[in-house]
Amino acid sequence: MSGLSSHVPDPRLLTTYAEHEDSPFHRVNAWTKVAVLALLVVAVTIADGLAAVWALYVAVLAGYAYAGLPVRKLLVWYTLPVIFVAAIAGPLAFGIGGRPMVELGPVSITWEGTATFVTLLGRGLTVVTYSLAIWMSTPYASIAHVLGRSLPSPIDQVALFAYRFTFVILEVVEDLLAGIHARGGRIQSDFWENRSLYGRIFGHTFIRSIERSEALLKSMNARGYHGDLAVYGHVDRPPARELLAVGAFALGIAVYAVTVAYGVMP
C-alpha cells in the first residue's frame, strides 16, 4: 500500500492486479477496452438526466465488481474525484435557479442545482471507475503497445515515461516520509505549522526525482533504448465477438443521441 494516503490509488497495487489477477475482464483485448473507454466518455457526456447517468455508473460498477477488483478500496479512492468535482461543479449548484432545498440567507441550494451537481458527479465517477478497471486489468506491456500505436510521437513516449516515473517519484516521497517519521516528525497534523516542511519535501522530491530519472534514462540507453518503448509489447487485434460488442455499443449510443439526447429523430 502507498505510504502517502489510502485515498490515493497506489500504482504498484494497480499494476499487481493487472499482472497477477485473472478475470473475464482481464482477458478482454486491450484495444477493446480503450475503444469502450472512448465510447463511454461519449455516452456519459450525452446522457440526458440523472437516471441515465447513474444507470451507466451502476453498470460500470457492476462490471468492476464482477472482474474481482476491490470495491471497498474504490470507494476510498473516490475521495479525490469527489473533491475535484465539488470544487468545479459545487459553485455551479448555487447559481442554478429553481425550487429551494436549503436556504442560507441570501444564498440557496435548489433541487435543480443539486441534481446538476449529482449528475456531474456521476459522469466523473463512471469514467474514473472504468479507467481504474482498465489500469487494474491490463498488463504494462499491453498499455505500452496501445499508447505507442494510438498516440503520435513524442506524446506516446512522454506518456510512457510519465507512467514509469510515477513509481520513481512515489518511492522518493515515501523514503522522505519514512525519514521524517523515524525522527518523530508528523506531517498529518498541524498542516499550517508544518508548511515549511512540506516545501522542503517538495524541493527534495523534485531534485531527487531528476537524479533518479537521469539514472533511469542512462540505464535504458545502455540497454538499447532508441526512442520507442512500444516495441517491447504487442497486442493482437480484437476478436470478432469483441468487435461486434463494441459496434453494438457504438450503435446504441448513436441511436440514443439522435432519438433521446438531441431529438433529431422522434
Automatic annotation (TrEMBL):
CDD domains per record = EcfT
Query: Could you tell me the membrane topology recorded for this protein?
Result: Multi-pass membrane protein
Name of the protein in its database record: Energy-coupling factor transporter transmembrane protein EcfT
Q: Does the keyword Cell membrane apply?
A: yes
Q: Which GO terms describe its biological process?
A: cobalt ion transport
- Which UniProt keywords are present, listed alphabetically? Cell membrane, Membrane, Transmembrane, Transmembrane helix
Q: Name one GO cellular component term.
A: ATP-binding cassette (ABC) transporter complex
Q: Where are the transmembrane segments?
A: 34-67, 74-94, 114-135, 243-265
Lineage top rank: taxon: Archaea
Major localization listed first in the record, in broad terms: membrane
Q: Where in the cell is the protein located?
A: Cell membrane
Q: Where is the signal peptide?
A: none
InterPro entries, per database record:
ABC/ECF_trnsptr_transmembrane (IPR003339), ECF_CbiQ (IPR012809), ECF_transporter_component (IPR051611)
